[in-house]
Amino acid sequence: MESFLKRLKYYGIGFSIGLVFVFIFFQNRGCSWLPSNRVKNAFLDRLIVVSDGQLKLLKASGVSEDDIIQVLNDGDVDFGESDTEGDLKVYKLSKNLEGKGVVNFFFSLPNESFISEVYVSAGRVTDIKNSTKGFGNIIHYPNDDHMLFLDSSEIMNCRIKALGFKDADALFKVIKKEGKIDFSKTNFSKKPKAIQHITIFEGQRQKFGLKAIWYKNKINVIAIESDSTIQCP
């Protein structure tokens, strides 16, 4: 019995030391069950988007895209100043950035959407609304090269081949390089799933567009809008 208690004591000491190392060194990744880290991971599982208007404010304030991602790694979630109810959830995160002081960020989580829009120093959480015009610059993609999923319809296969893509992964690479969110064609209030519109650019020219929904942590493309000269059934 005494030997068992001694082993149990050593086990408890080792377990406690392990927990300390997890908290200190692994932070968000090692403690994803913490409420604040669950919130941050919800953003990192989505496309993080900055509107054209917010991008100008970011540059004017000296805040970089790297700062935005950094606040999701070790920033503080202010649940008291967040709106966690309704179809549009908005969370306030803060971080003391070197040379910039404390900067407040607001991240949106529209219901059933693969987009999280970020705002910097926007004031109050009630000021945050889904963008309805202009374009959104995608500054973060989840670590999943197979995140894009295409409907297997005949017309979808026809359009994909006509545009020169062999599969969804090839299309996703182009989205990462040349894609933007078109807020004017995105419907966050659509039920049961928000419909997002991704526009592919070639320089300043819009090449084609994709309508997509969020389904099982994948971007499910449900329609392709391309040149009318493409003949598909």
Largest sheet: 11 strands, mixed
Series of H and E elements:
HHEHHEEEEEEHHEEEE
Q: What is the CA-atom radius of gyration, in angstroms?
A: 22 Å
Low-confidence stretches: 20-30
Span of the ends, CA to CA:
78 Å
Structural class: alpha+beta
Portion of residues within helices = 25-40%
Q: What's the total number of strands?
A: 11
**In what range is the share of β-strand residues?**
25-35%
Q: The CATH topology of the largest domain, please?
A: YaeB-like fold
Q: Give me the number of helical elements.
A: 6
Strand order of the largest sheet: 2-3-4-5-1-6-8-9-10-11-7
Shape: globular
Whole-number count of domains: 3
Regarding CATH, which class of the largest domain? Alpha Beta
CATH architecture of the largest domain: 2-Layer Sandwich
Task: Indicate the mean pLDDT.
Answer: 85
Describe the protein:
The protein is α+β, with helices and mostly antiparallel strands. It folds into three domains: 2-31; 46-136, YaeB-like fold; 144-225. The chain has helices at residues 2-30, 35-44, 52-61, 65-74, 154-162, 168-178; strands spanning 47-51, 76-83, 88-97, 101-110, 115-120, 135-140, 148-150, 179-182, 196-202, 205-215, 218-225. An eleven-stranded mixed β-sheet has the order 2-3-4-5-1-6-8-9-10-11-7. A hairpin with a 3-residue loop joins strand 3 and strand 4 (101-110). The longest helix is centred in the first third of the chain and has 29 residues, at 2-30. The radius of gyration is 22 Å and the shape is globular. The model is unreliable at 20-30 (pLDDT under 50).
